[in-house]
Amino acid sequence: MTEIATVKQRFGIIGTSELLDRALEVALRVAPTDLTVLVTGESGVGKEFFPQVIHAYSARKHNKYIAVNCAAIPEGTIDSELFGHEKGAFTGATEARKGYFEEADGGTIFLDEVAELPHPTQARLLRVLQTGEFIRVGSSKVQKTNVRVVAATNMNLQEAIAQGRFREDLFYRLSTVPIVVPSLRERPEDIPLLFRKFAADVAVQYRMPAVTLDEGARQMLMHYYWRGNIRQLKNVAEQISAIEQARVITAEVLSKYLPRQEAGAPVAAGSVRMDDDMSTERELLYKVLFDMRADINDLKRMMAELMQASGRCQEPVRDIRGLLPSAAQSSLAPVQPAPVYAESEEVTDDPPRERTKADMQREQIIRALRRNNGRRREAAAELFMSERTLYRKIKELGIAEN
Ligand SMILES: Nc1ncnc2c1ncn2[C@@H]1O[C@H](COP(=O)(O)OP(=O)(O)OP(=O)(O)O)[C@@H](O)[C@H]1O
Q: Whole-prediction pTM value?
């Protein structure tokens, strides 16, 4: 097996295209050095694999790897998160705290969405990249750290520089080695492979047979624009797996899941990760459907087991809700999951529509956070929303995290 094939297997990277291989090869070649790497590419192309590969194949692999989503940290706290603070540095700083650059001494920091860094933080970052020096917020003591930085962005940094939003000197310092991750359009041969992988993952997770594509659907999938790249493809594969009863998908069925494209123009795709509330709500509905399906399968299995155990196959089990996990209980009353929300919105006795949706969102977010031990990044990915949207929702819905 080639080294690239080993990397793909180890990290679960799917694809055989030359452009992907080339990008991975650069990552492998640069890994043993301490050079700063800038990973660029459209949203959803899989940039996050690259810093992980670089760290794993470097001499720093036994030291810390810290991934920071610069867009998810509020502007007011980002300096303190990255560089630490002294006790009393600001209101609420009851204790001194190490920042990620101190924590990751000897290791690697991945700065995702680096274009989102505010100007003062850009200056601090430039300093640590040039000299290894940093100062905790509220301190005057210069400290040293030895951290390798890999940064990523889906923004056009040249544009950001032209608009005065990003420092040019920082751009050059960051992009010592640039890695460009190809869009899905540039590697159509990988599309069916990726679809198959995501459909198989859903099948395992929700205990159902995997969906497959007929030739027409396969062609349609390969010629689609995929504005949201692999994230969008994954999303579509999951939606189809959850919603469609038939396991062989035709082009006609598939087209329902692919937002219309105007000739030649990249259009806003409906199932891409989006930050507007409408899409978030729809994604949450899909998620509810998934959970219900899994719950119903559990329910069926438990009923069969109960009947077998009691030996009274004729007698229906009257109320087994108490035996079910809470997720299953909530989906037990509406046995037909899909129309439940639509119907309940029409019934005047039910809580008002907005409240029902907010409750549902709340529950989904809490579940996702729980499933991911409070890790927002993973929870956000599971909920098909950006970390920033999740952060906003947590605040809006008053969800307490611990
Ligand atoms: N080659 C691949 N094989 C399997 N899964 C992939 C591959 N590339 C990306 N993915 C999956 O697609 C999703 C999006 O990838 P990722 O978060 O790395 O995108 P990104 O380029 O960092 O996007 P953004 O710029 O929006 O943060 C993730 O769930 C990731 O696991």
A: 0.70
